[in-house]
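Need tokens for this chain, all 499 residues.
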Amino acid sequence: MEAVNRSAAIAASLLAAFVALLGQGAAASAVRDSRAGCPGYQLTSSQSVQAAINARAAGSTFCLKAGVYRVAQPIAPKAGDRFIGATGTVISGGKAVTSWAHVGHEWVARGESRVPTLRPGGGYGGSYEYPIAVYGDDLYMDSAALQKVGVRNQGRTIGSSKVGPGQYFVDYDKGEILLGSNPFGHNVELATSSAGIQAHVPDVSISGVTVEMTTGAGIATSASGWTLDGDQVRFVHGAGIQIGSNADLSNDNSHDNGTYGIIGSGANIVVQQSVFDHNNTARYYHGGDKQCYDAGGTKFTFTTGLDFEHNNVLNNLCPGIWLDIDNANSRIISNYVEGNFGNGIDDEISYTAKICGNDVETNAGYGILIAASSSDTVCDNTVANNGNGGIWLNQLARNEWPSPLGPHLVVNTEVTGNTVNQPHGLDGAHEAGVIGTPFAGAVFSSSNLWNNNHYVISAAGSQAFAWEGKTLNWTEWRATGHDLSSSAQTVAGAALTSG
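Here are the structure tokens for all 499 residues:
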């Protein structure tokens, strides 16, 4: 009953926080809309945003009135430009598809000739379970994504050409789109622009803008100092948001995008009070092992001093929060990470992360995975009901991406103050493929230590822990020197002792 009450309390707290977050966004929009006049150049959706940018000096402010601003190419700001959107400001990379004919049980749009937009993704080796994931020409009806079931390209059909309600097939050879729902009386759009807003100039600010329906990214830069506040990115085939050094992102929502909600590289990135949910809609994952290689909720590479705090990362297909490749001094603090098809928080071949105060629940993989990363602190997290287990250290032979910070060893890891409710799965450490390499045995060194944690496991004798290739019960686990000042209980509430 205590666990049920606690879950209800968490749900109520999260709902209140999310409502408050939405309220803050609405309040901010109301403030923008109630100003006597936005201090910049006024634009309506009948005007070209890019033409206005081209006609003005760098560092200009553009006030976008409510409406849909359609773009065939990404908007390219100048350095220091500011974009302030009134409530209802949408930048869309979609174009209307109107040439429909009813043929049998389906509808066909002809005259849609285009070169296929291919977005292979970093893990593509020709073995995606859904090979059509790499085709970025997506179709929408009434601002909702439809399901692509197949394409025909250069005489080859990939997927299926049979469509049902809410489904479509793209025939690049004929320049046709086959749709399984009646389009008449609806707004049907095809993604055309490769991004919504994209430039590699510094210090751009974007607030109150929705970006949607592109064949690639939503808002994208590798430059320094971009600020995003109160924006929404949805229905783009690539990553919703891409940011670089000194970026400051808050109160944003990036959801229902093809690969990631957000990706980033660089120094001193701040992401806070934002929501990243239901991403990897294109289904970028491999068949057979169902492994994810380049998609999910978030992914950060080559960062220093990343600060990712007070965000919700929910229901993404593949990992939730993913640090991968030479990230250093990251702070992953007080986030809610739930329902992701992969690990909740994954720190991979990186260094000195502080992963603390997070609520990590019902993810398909491990709650928190430390994979070939060193000197991490995993503290004060609530980790519950994840598919593979709670907190897991994994050492593989990872020689790629060498770093001056040292080899990719799982050493100097502190796991403390966590509450781990895992009636199934494992907590502990594992190594694979390291025999005869310098990585062998590293993860089992005394520099990795669990202590001052609390566990809930299925039964007194459950082998809920792993160490040196063996699964262990609570008494055996503590005999390895871990969790000597920790506590454990069964799901039924019985306290466990070391005897």
